[in-house]
UniProtKB/TrEMBL annotation:
InterPro entries: UCP028498 (IPR016888). Pfam families: DUF2255. This is DUF2255 family protein.
Length: 123
C-alpha cells in the first residue's frame, strides 16, 4: 500500500471538496465529480451518498483507478474498499469536518453510504 507524503495528505485532507475522475476500462478518465473528502489518521476517504448504487462509485469499480484533485494537489490514485473496521474513524472525520452541514452530513453516515467507503491511495 502506497503512503501519502505529509504535504499532500495535509492539503487534500483539509480541502473542502475533491474532484474525482475514475478510469474507464480503456484507461481514459471519466468526467470528474465533486465530493467531500475526509482524512482519518494517515489515510484519505470518500463515500457515495447513494451507496454502491451511486453512478460515480460504480465507475470506480471497472479499474479501481483514477485521478483526484484537491487542495492544489493532483494525483493518480487507486480506490480500495475500506474495511468495516475503518468506518467509525471515517464517520467521526465526516462529523468533525462537515458537521456544520447537519442536514447533509447524515446522508454520508448511513449504512448504504458506509458500504461505499473508498480509501484513496496514491499511485
Amino acid at each position: 500500500m502506497a503512503q501519502w507524503n505529509g504535504s499532500d495528505l495535509e492539503k487534500v485532507g483539509a480541502a473542502e471538496e475533491l474532484e474525482l475522475a475514475s478510469e474507464r476500462p480503456n484507461g481514459t478518465l471519466r468526467d470528474a465529480v465533486t465530493m467531500w473528502v475526509v482524512r482519518s489518521g494517515d489515510r484519505l476517504y470518500v463515500r457515495s451518498v447513494k451507496g454502491t448504487d451511486g453512478p460515480w462509485w460504480r465507475g470506480t469499480q471497472s479499474r479501481s483507478r483514477g485521478r483526484i484533485e484537491a487542495g492544489g494537489v493532483e494525483r493518480d490514485v487507486a480506490f480500495h474498499p475500506a474495511d468495516p473496521g475503518e468506518y467509525a474513524g471515517v464517520d467521526a472525520a465526516y462529523r468533525e469536518k462537515y458537521g456544520r452541514y447537519t442536514s447533509i452530513v447524515e446522508h454520508v453516515l448511513t449504512d448504504a453510504a458506509r458500504a461505499s467507503t473508498l480509501r484513496l491511495e496514491p499511485r
